[in-house]
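Sorry to interrupt, but I need a hand with the structure work. Could you add the entry underneath, on a fresh line?
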Amino acid sequence: MVSDIAHAPVDRPPERPVDLPEDRMVVDGVDVLGSLSPSRAGDFMSCPLLFRYRTVDRLPEPASPDAVRGTVVHKVLEDLFDLPAGDRTPSRATSLLVPAWEAVLEREPAIAEMFGEDGPEVGPWLASCEESLHRYFALEDPTRLEPAERELYVETLLDSKLLLRGFVDRLDVAPTGEIRVVDYKTGKAPNEAFEAKALFQMKFYALVIWRTRGVVPRMLQLIYLGSGELLRYTPDEHDLLATERKLEALWEAIVRAQESGDWRPNRSALCDWCAHRAICPEWGGTPPPLPEPEPVQQLTDGLTSEDVD
């Protein structure tokens, strides 16, 4: 287990790209078969119809207080590590909360419409963000950590020419070279039945890091701030090779669905949180007509906010 990893301070990585090319079909002179991010891969595994709505139809989805909480808390935790180690205290994290909220509002003013008459009051909602931050300090001591990378954009092109890409919340590197991949979640830890899905995202990142750095991460760590729990996993090469095969098989299934137009719904407990339930045939709805087909390489290239939460 890699714990309390120390590393010499590094320059803050550049801000996350906002407009990544949506038609990126060539990488380093190689024609790309297609691209996947963890969230889009997860969409297809959960429900091919949801994948279609998000990547083929590109239907808008309303923001939610829970999703915005994740964005704000991530911002605070990123900014916290800009401070000297001794200043990374719960009180300083709380002082960063309102500025982080204001920064999110500046980028997306429409978010403010979620609060007030038809939604939660901002004050109690900010208090819930503060509770998430307090749980963080019960799980880690940031004064003993110097992350090597934060909000790191990663990508790799597999031998199959499938491009994998996403954002890693935090990368810790020990003096001995061991790597820990860390992801913050503002929800509650999943029960055992859903742990595999949560770890799939982390294995995706571990695969990309292995392919780009030549090192299998020593630990994958999910920090659940909604319940104050840690989920840790130690991968090996066998795990990551299996993840690679799964992603390539998943891409083949996406291609078949695109060619046939057969995006089947998969009814599950996750339907209760789906923004498109009203147009899902599993719930008596009717999907909109399929748009004109586009090159399959472009289907999953765009990254969304889900790729950083």
